[in-house]
Specification:
- Helix 7 (141-154) packs across helix 8 and helix 7 (141-154) packs across helix 9 (199-216).
- A hairpin with a 3-residue loop joins strand 3 (159-164) and strand 4 (168-173).
- The strands form two sheets. The chain has a three-stranded antiparallel β-sheet with strand order 1-3-4.
- It contains twelve helices and five strands.
- Mean pLDDT is 86; it is low at 229-262.
- The protein has helices at 18-35, 39-49, 53-56, 74-77, 85-106, 108-129, 141-154, 175-191, 199-216, 232-235, 242-245, 250-253; strands at 2-7, 137-138, 159-164, 168-173, 265-266.
- By secondary structure, the protein is mainly alpha-helical.
- Pfam families: Rhomboid.
- One of its GO terms (biological process) is proteolysis.
- Residues 73-218 form the Peptidase S54 rhomboid domain.
- InterPro entries: Peptidase_S54_rhomboid_dom (IPR022764), Rhomboid-like_sf (IPR035952).
- The chain crosses the membrane at residues 16-36, 48-69, 75-99, 111-129, 135-154, 161-182, 197-216.
Length: 267
């Protein structure tokens, strides 16, 4: 439906989004390692680290030699495995644009817990809907869906540059594209629950993210903020220009942003 490009939303409590950056780096590293493997080895990695509902719910047993981590850990490890560049890139772009402000609202440690719980919730929801499926679930979008849900509850009015239908760049209030995206996940789950994309994992992540932002955000961090609050250090800077004083970064305000396998379920 759309690709997020940039949001003019400054950090207020942290200097650098270390956890977001580390998660992106880890996902890229895992993808690079698996892309260097042979096709057979890459498939073994997908099976060994992916979440397989039939195994999780006791309907099947993983063949000897394929287990990489204990089965309960696959509720998390699946979220760091991707089957191709565009699968990885799509998830990481969403995490890059929206993850920093959610991390800012929670703090580093709580954001890491938030991300992992959203990943596990996505796997659990997928598993409950497809208990006998032997297709491994891989991809970060269960966790990223939680990040999207948290972001729209924190900053619905922030302007976000999005690339609509891969062609048209538009600056929109965050709630417009993000609520449409969230609605799409529920709609697709209703009409295509058994497709190659796990809409159930997306919905599980969304529900977890919407709940967890209520309990994990910092004391005093509001929900549904009405405007971008400029950090005190910027407000007190006598050299700040009008764009900064109004709550956006002058540097960004002037910048104009411009093979999937059938046997694997993507998230």
């Amino acid at each position: 439906m759309f690709i997020p490009l940039h949001d003019a939303n400054t950090l207020k409590h942290i200097k650098v989004q270390w956890v977001t950056l580390a998660l992106i780096a880890l996902n890229i590293a895992v993808w690079l390692l698996t892309s260097l493997e042979s096709e057979q080895a890459a498939q073994a990695t997908t099976v060994g680290l992916g979440y397989i509902p039939a195994i999780a719910f006791g309907h099947a047993v993983l063949a000897q030699g394929l287990e990489i981590v204990p089965e309960p850990l696959t509720y998390l490890t699946y979220a760091f495995v991707h089957t191709g560049f565009w699968h990885l890139a799509g998830n990481m772009i969403f995490l890059w644009v929206f993850g920093d402000n959610v991390e800012d609202a929670m703090g580093h440690l709580r954001f890491l817990i938030f991300y992992l719980v959203c990943a596990a919730a996505g796997a659990l929801c997928h598993g409950l809907l497809t208990m006998t499926s032997e297709a491994p679930l891989v991809g970060a979008s269960g966790a990223v869906s939680g990040v999207v849900a948290a972001y729209v509850m924190l900053h619905p009015r922030v302007r976000v540059w999005v690339l609509v239908f891969f062609r048209v760049p538009l600056p929109l209030p965050a709630f417009v594209p993000l609520l449409l995206w969230i609605g799409q996940q529920f709609f697709m789950l209703a009409i295509a629950p058994d497709g190659d994309v796990s809409w159930g994992a997306h919905v599980g992540g969304i529900l977890a993210g919407a709940f967890l932002i209520l309990v994990l955000r910092r004391p005093g961090v509001p929900l549904f903020d009405r405007q971008i609050v400029t950090p005190r250090a910027v407000r007190n800077d006598p050299g700040a220009g009008p764009a900064i004083a109004a709550g956006t970064d002058a540097r960004t305000a002037q910048r104009f942003p411009w093979g999937r396998r059938k046997t694997t379920t993507l998230t």
